[in-house]
Amino acid sequence: MSKVQVMEHPLIQHKMGFIRDKNTPTKTFRELVDEVGMLMAYEVTRDLDLEEVEVETPIQTTTAKRLSGKKICLVPILRAGLGMQESIHKLIPSARVGHIGLYRDPDTLQAIEYYAKFPGDIEERDIFVIDPMLATGASAVEAITAIKKRGGSKIRFICLIAAPEGVETLQKAHPDVDIYIAALDDRLDDHSYIVPGLGDAGDRLFGTK
């Protein structure tokens, strides 16, 4: 079964308190999500492969380390995933960026793909699937399934808040995908919203309803 890591770093938890607050304005909310995404990226990338390279310092030649291989592909789930993608991209500017668009059927609650675009060499890259919320898990499962169908295999999922039901669903569907979470909440309500949650991440990021 995949690893589930809840990040208890004080800075992450401090910022999550403001992210949850319904009185946090859109601009501040967007900035906080960006900051937490960057903080989470440090832990998610902890075990990336490195290779030794020779460089010239102002003093002498020495051996340094750089990321090895084809490196990383970031895949935000549209649209809310965009709120975390940019900050991670700042840390890893060489990463390629794919996108996947999904909408939830209001009757079945199933995620339906309407857009997907990935790098041609996605099978050679470490893939970070990004979405602020892991509620039912349907969107995450569908996004990762779409990536695997196109050859991707080394996949991690990053989100701000998850419900236990979503974590269980994702683990059952993709037991090889590790999950990184800033907060694991109590449950889903009757409308499949995370409780206590933070509301609709996409609406709060972009000022829509």
Summarize the structure.
The protein is of the alpha/beta class and 209 residues long. The protein has helices at 10-20, 26-44, 82-91, 138-149, 164-173, 201-206, and strands spanning 4-6, 50-56, 61-67, 72-78, 96-97, 99-104, 111-117, 126-130, 133-134, 154-162, 178-184, 187-188, 194-195. The chain is built from 6 helices and 13 strands.
List the helices and strands and how they pair.
Layout: E1 4-6, H1 10-20, H2 26-44, E2 50-56, E3 61-67, E4 72-78, H3 82-91, E5 96-97, E6 99-104, E7 111-117, E8 126-130, E9 133-134, H4 138-149, E10 154-162, H5 164-173, E11 178-184, E12 187-188, E13 194-195, H6 201-206
Parallel strand pairs: 1-11, 4-5, 4-6, 4-8, 8-10, 9-10, 10-11
Antiparallel strand pairs: 2-3, 6-7, 12-13
Keywords: Allosteric enzyme, Glycosyltransferase, GTP-binding, Magnesium, Nucleotide-binding, Transferase
InterPro entries: PRTase-like (IPR029057), PRTase_dom (IPR000836), Upp_B (IPR034332), UPRT (IPR005765), UPRTase/APRTase (IPR050054)
GO molecular function, one term: magnesium ion binding
